[in-house]
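#lab-general

N.A. 3:47 PM
ok so I finally got the sequence cleaned up, no stray characters, all 337 residues accounted for. can someone with queue access submit it? mine expired

B.Y. 3:52 PM
send it over

N.A. 3:53 PM
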Amino acid sequence: MDEKKFDLITMGRSSIDLYSQNIGADFVDIKGFDAFVGGSPLNIAVGASRLGAKVSLLTGLGNDKVGDFILHFLKKQQVNTDTIPRIDGARTSAVVLGIEPPDRFPLVYYRDNCADSQMTIDHVIAANVPEYKVLEISATALNIEPSRSAVFYAVETAYENNVDVVLDVDFRADQWKDLRSFGLMVRAILPKVKIAIGTEEEILAATLQDAGQVKISHQQISAPEIKGNIDASIEKILKSGPEVLIVKRGSKGATIHYKDGKMEEVPGFPVEILNVLGAGDAFASGFIYGYLQNWSLYKSCRLGNASGAWVVQKPGCANDMPYHDELMKFVESRGGL
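B.Y. 4:20 PM
back already:
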């Protein structure tokens, strides 16, 4: 990679995350919450910073106490916050989360008039994207204006200035009025993306064209069942532009799909799960850190898998991202990269 002033800038959601203190309790029986921070780009920024990368976050915060809370945390994590505007008339986002291991983790978003959706092209210009080696974007920011145009502008700027674009497919069904529009926006931005990362469900959503492929119940609204041919969806995404598509597969690890049809399976690090929320963001932070070190994609994904395994054993997301030395010690105890 060419010499740049900074390593990574992540762009999109940020929030205060209120996590249930009563692990295992049904959501209606929760008695209290712990205040953490969250949002996929924020989590990735913190994770990469803790591993040693020079990172900035481009998001929007309201002129409110919740925004102060998030900024205070980010500064302690050595994430550059000069790229974060405070937006009058908007509110910092919030998420409320339950923890019911092994497989129920209900969450409720509060994103009406949220500040990170009010990012503009001018905010992108002020962030000076060409100074970075990697721009990471999360697809939820494509759901509404003006953040949609801001993301497209950031990606165009990166593409024209030798900044590698990494897309976290980041599918949140309840943030889209029509699920098909999610796929439209993702497919529109893919030609300028170098590496895309997503779960099988997110990849199917990114190629969704027929509403008949979607099954949604009241319990599924945040993660509906989407039917489709995953191999065809992977092929469609790779034909749209990215050189690489990484499919996150939880405890099974990850699969790297290349444009030429080559595929690599990257094993995970099996652990006992406490909370899966944030595991994908931890994967991305570990992977991007390895990528910034010019490691192979296989080795970078192994570190991503290790970071994800670390976080699923913890109650939080950004607050529980691993630091470099402790993650490397964990990796070595499990056979290395």
